[in-house]
Design goal:
Blueprint: H1 2-27, E1 35-42, E2 44-66, E3 72-77, E4 84-85, E5 90-94, H2 97-139, H3 145-154, H4 158-182, E6 185-187, E7 192-197, E8 204-205, E9 212-226, E10 239-243, E11 252-259, E12 270-277, E13 288-305, E14 310-312, E15 315-322, E16 325-330, E17 332-336, E18 340-345, E19 352-356, E20 366-369
Parallel strand pairs: 1-20
Antiparallel strand pairs: 1-19, 2-9, 2-13, 3-5, 3-8, 4-7, 5-6, 7-9, 9-12, 10-11, 10-13, 11-12, 13-18, 14-15, 15-16, 17-18
């Protein structure tokens, strides 16, 4: 009986063990291939440029500090800060009382000099008549040589020249006095906007400090410097973009109007001048601006976003996608402006490159494009 039971157990074990093994084999599964989510962009041709940014302060295209040519008491002021004026407009006037007296005295001195000249001319004319008479008497021996020389001296034109010089001197003094009288009316030397008024009616104005400041704001200028590396990459007439945050979010267009062929004193940079149209008067003198100068430009070249390029094993590479698989390609780079980079060799127009997620990829990685 015991033998039968033992035999039965052996048979049960023989059939159970293989079945258990088969069951375990069915539970083993192959690991699934990892799929990486990426963002992509089509490779295309486009224009790319390299810019250099320079900082500088804005100044008016033209400005003037007005001082009176003569000192005097301010009689009337015709302008105020912010007022627009044209060239020749009267800014202020000085009291004319003292200058009118100077003119009167100069006129009197001139008239006296003219009258004196006429008297001298008459005297010399009479002296010349006497001289001719005395010359005949001297030749006849009727008068001495000393007497003759006295008549000769009286007929000399020397005294007449002195009188003429006095007339000319007084004439110049009169003209200067009249000019000073005109200078009591101070006019604007340029067209522009009044930026400062430093005088008050009744106070003395002098040439020690500007009485009025004027700026022409129809155009403004930016004067800055560029390095020797850039000097031969720009030229007069080039257009530049200028950001002036205080004047608005949009960039302004400027034009290079002057470019020095020599460095600034004590510097290794070259002065450059840029003009900006300012018809709306949004740009004010003293504002700070950033000038973007295109120093290198290429047209219709293969470009990709700069972030698409990574370094693998010391090489610049991009990943392209085809049939949901990533393919690593070595590339040769050209201009890189931080946003886009020129691809000289490695990918073609129309291919799809990975712009996000590329750092997790290897050759042949399975990918899906994020939507």
């Amino acid at each position: 009986m015991k033998k039968k039971i033992s035999l039965l157990l052996i048979l049960i074990l023989i059939f159970t063990v293989p079945l258990a093994g088969c069951k375990k084999k069915k539970e083993v599964k192959e690991p699934e291939e990892k799929v990486i989510s990426v963002e992509t962009k089509k490779v295309q041709k486009g224009d790319i440029n390299l810019k250099t940014t320079l900082s500088a302060k804005v100044a008016p295209i033209e400005e003037a500090s007005v001082v009176p040519k003569i000192p005097g008491k301010v009689a009337k002021i015709n302008i105020e800060i912010g007022q627009k004026v044209n060239k020749g407009d009267v800014l202020f006037t000085l009291d004319k009382t003292d200058m009118l007296n100077v003119v009167k005295n100069a006129e009197a001195a001139y008239n006296m000099a003219v009258a004196n000249l006429k008297i001298r001319e008459e005297q010399i004319e009479n002296a010349r008549t006497n001289y001719e008479r005395m010359k005949f008497l001297y030749e006849q021996g009727a008068i001495s040589k000393q007497q003759f020389e006295q008549y000769e001296l009286q007929a000399s034109s020397t005294n007449l020249e002195v009188a003429k010089a006095q007339v000319e001197q007084s004439r110049v003094a009169l003209e200067n006095a009249k000019s000073s009288l005109v200078d009591t009316t101070v006019t604007s030397p340029i067209s522009g906007v009044i930026t400062a008024v430093n005088i008050n009616e009744g106070e003395m104005a002098s040439s020690a400090m500007p009485a009025v400041s004027i700026a022409n704001l129809d155009k403004v200028v930016i004067e800055t410097d560029i390095s020797e590396y850039l000097i031969n990459k720009v030229k007069i007439g080039d257009s530049v973009d200028i950001s002036i945050k205080s004047a608005g979010k949009e960039n302004f267009k400027g034009k290079i109007t002057a470019l020095s062929p020599a460095t600034s004193q004590g510097s290794m940079t070259y002065p450059i001048k840029i003009e900006i149209d300012n018809k709306n008067k949004l740009i004010k003198p003293g504002m700070f601006g950033e000038v973007s100068i295109v120093t290198e430009k290429k047209e219709k070249v293969i470009t990709v976003p700069s972030e698409a390029v990574i370094v693998k094993e010391g090489n610049d590479v991009v990943f392209t996608v085809e049939d949901n698989k990533a393919h690593m390609k070595n590339v040769s780079l050209g201009i890189d402006n931080g946003e886009y980079v020129e691809i000289i060799k490695g990918v073609k127009e129309g291919e799809t490159v990975v712009i996000k997620g590329q750092n997790y990829l290897d050759e042949g990685s399975k990918v899906k494009t994020a939507k």
